[in-house]
Amino acid sequence: MSDIPLYKVSVGGDEAVGKTSLIRRYCEGQFETSRVATIGVDFQTKIVELPSGAVKLSIWDMAGQARFEIVRTGMYRGSRAVAIVFDLSNPETLAHLPAWHTEAVTNAKGTKILVVGNKLDLAPARGVGKSFADSVGAPYVETSAQSGEGVAEMFTALAALAGGNG
Ligand code: G3D
Ligand code: MG
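A: This is the predicted complex of the input protein with G3D.
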């Protein structure tokens, strides 16, 4: 028996922004240069150490493809925090953040949001997601699933939000 609290969190954002790569990097310490697109949803669990104690996350990976919208709706249910990810090297994915935000807060009542700019290794300009994050009162982090930079910070922030300490 364990008294570690279990929180569901999920990761959304456009196709190919790096959602699956971020989760794999964090949970398995791996980055694969070529990946098959996620079909439907999947989740992994990971224990995260916070200053307030350990929490266990079930981290749900989302298919970003629009045709899976019905699957996404179910995936949000019960999520305590949702990371919405964009690609720092692809402005179109930044422009889609408001739609991802609306979808998350509509389907996961009361959920906390974390905005994540991924592929930091490809993008010289930092901070481009900050104004959107500020506009919705969400924290903002930047990551590279390739180098690993910021990945632990992303999931620690998500765990803190899920546990109400964010
Ligand atoms: P998704 O789950 O959001 O759809 P994936 O995205 O994790 O499948 O990643 C999509 C592509 O982006 C993959 O390349 C993956 O290797 C790459 N990628 C993910 N994160 C990063 C990153 O931080 N930096 C760089 N440079 N690439 C990244 P392929 O070639 O398989 O399409
Ligand atoms: Mg994926």
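Residues 6-162 form a domain with the Rossmann fold fold (CATH 3.40.50.300). The chain has a mean pLDDT of 89.
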